[in-house]
Design goal:
- By secondary structure, the chain is α/β, with parallel strands linked by helices.
- The protein folds into two domains: about 1-70, Alpha-Beta Plaits (2-Layer Sandwich); about 75-290, Rossmann fold, CATH 3.40.50.1000.
- It has helices spanning about 15-25, 50-60, 90-100, 100-115, 120-130, 135-145, 150-160, 175-185, 210-225, 245-250, 260-265, 275-280; strands at about 1-10, 30-35, 40-45, 65-70, 75-80, 165-175, 190, 195, 200-205, 235, 250-255, 265-270.
- It has a six-stranded parallel beta sheet with strand order 7-6-5-10-11-12, sandwiched between helices. Strands 2-3-1-4 form a four-stranded antiparallel beta sheet. A two-stranded antiparallel sheet has the order 8-9.
- A hairpin with a 2-residue loop joins strand 8 (about 195) and strand 9 (about 200-205).
- The longest helix is centred in the C-terminal third of the chain and has 15 residues, at about 210-225.
- The radius of gyration is 20 Å and the shape is elongated.
């Protein structure tokens, strides 16, 4: 058995006639409405031969189409990237903007997140440009610039209500992970530490730097510590440093992923908000907990 999950772009509705036709073309066995005009689940007897072509066509209409072997199931652990995933910004880019080096740093960030540059080297290069900036700018960015990704609170609250555990893991910095974890209700958070002396950034990050290997290791550690198999874990992220963790868990999702990440991930949400991750687990909208 296979399952297709179809989700609309935030604020838009699905084309019911197009879904009916897809159901017929794929010889569906059952159709389940997860959310009226927003999300539909198709139960199939076989893997569609033309899934890739159909996915591409539906992308043009702002619709995400994902395919699962078997039936969807609620995951017991969520491991999530922060920048560009649980929040709408890249924290380092915002710090750089405030320091007057924003344009250059944004270019480096984009290349690093697409896997074109070594993550650790690129992080050190960008942080060095913050040397001699007041540490207070961190709190200023948090209060003035950071916005939560839509759907995050509902995602966390719904999974928690069903016994889920959550960890925020980031190559970004701990003042931001602490703030975002508290706002969204993560059980734990992990990030890098900017070195501060006399209330001033010295332009360096504490070693060892937490990058893609750390994110994958946190997944393995959580699985062992909580006695929950990796197959019952969902990991989400948008950058190249997330790929290692996306590959080892039961459901690794590229959420609004950079091109290289979206191309490598088995499951992709390019259009919906974070509640689309609940539909991928088989939740109906009536099951959502609105925090």
């Amino acid at each position: 058995m296979w399952t297709a999950i179809i989700t609309a772009e935030s604020g838009k509705t699905l084309d019911s006639k197009a879904i009916d036709q897809l159901y017929l073309d794929w010889q569906g066995r059952h159709m389940t409405e997860l959310a009226a005009s927003e999300a539909v689940m198709l139960t199939l007897s076989h893997e569609p031969d033309d899934f890739a072509a159909r996915w591409q066509a539906w992308q043009q209409n702002g619709v995400d189409l994902n395919l699962l072997a078997g039936a969807p199931s609620p995951k017991r652990i969520l491991v999530a990237d922060m920048d560009g995933t649980m929040i709408e910004q890249e924290c380092l880019d915002e710090l750089a903007e405030m320091a007057g080096v924003g344009e250059y740093v944004k270019q480096v960030t984009a290349r690093a997140m697409n896997g074109e540059l070594d993550f650790e080297a690129a992080l050190k290069q960008r942080v060095a440009l913050l040397k001699n900036q007041p540490a207070e700018m961190i709190n200023q960015v948090i209060s003035e610039k950071i916005s939560l990704m839509p759907g995050g609170k509902t995602l966390l609250a719904t999974m928690r209500a069903n016994g889920g555990y959550s960890a925020l893991v980031s190559g970004g910095f701990t003042p931001f992970t602490e703030y975002v974890a508290e706002q969204l209700g993560f059980d734990e958070h992990h990030g890098n530490d900017l070195i501060i002396a006399n209330d001033v950034l010295i332009g360096a990050v504490a070693e060892p730097i937490k990058g893609k290997a750390t994110k994958q290791q946190i997944c393995r550690t959580l699985s062992h510590r909580l006695a929950i198999p990796l197959s019952e874990m969902m990991a989400i992220g948008d950058g190249a440093n997330d790929l290692d963790m996306l590959r080892i868990v039961g459901m690794g999702v590229a959420f609004h992923g950079k091109p290289a990440v979206a191309a490598a991930a088995q499951w992709r949400i390019n259009h919906g908000d974070l509640t689309a991750l609940l539909y991928l687990q088989g939740y109906r909208k009536s099951d959502f907990i609105n925090a």
